[in-house]
Each structure stands twice: as structure tokens, then as C-alpha cells.
Amino acid sequence: AMTLWTVLGQVHDRRSRQGQRYSLRSLLALSLGALLGGCSSLGAIAQWIAEVGREDSEVVRDRAGQALHATLHYFFSSLDIKSPERSLSLWVKAAGREGQAQVAID
Known about the structure:
The chain has 106 residues and is an all-alpha fold. It has helices at residues 4-9, 24-36, 42-52, 65-78, 82-97. The chain is globular and about 40 Å long.
């Protein structure tokens, strides 16, 4: 079965090497978790990631909320939205073909 983590790893990263301090897959997964947790702004997403990821997230180690907010701003500004849309669509379709009645994001 194709996992969400695998699918997020297939999203095209348009950032320059200099802009790839954090993996695209990690930023997408954490941001998706924040959105599913009810966050509706970039600031709220940054705060959610900082709170949830304090212990084990590569993205938030030693990062203040403001720095993470800026990182997310530049990250989403450079993201080609069609790439994650395609990848997530394929994931949902694959889950349907595998006979899964529901798609669990956990």
C-alpha cells in the first residue's frame, strides 16, 4: 500500500539547494497535520508545528516561532501546488483501487 509519507516524498521540490534546509516531505507532512488539527493561518501552522514537534521534529529543533513562520512563508511561496495535488490525488485513487473504504491520515 502506498503511504502518505511516500506520496509526499514524490512532490516536486522547486527550491534551490540553498533553500532546502528542511525536507519538503517533512514540511508538507507537518503542515498537513496542522491543517487537519484546525489551523487556518500560517502563524497558527507555525505555532502548531513548534508545539507538536518540540521533541522529535527536524523542522523545529532550535527554531523560534517567528523563524519557522518565515520558513513556511518562503516554502509555500515556492511550492508548485499542482505537484502535491497530483500526488495526493494518485494516493486517494490508489487507496480506492486497493479496496479501502476510507483513507486514514495518521
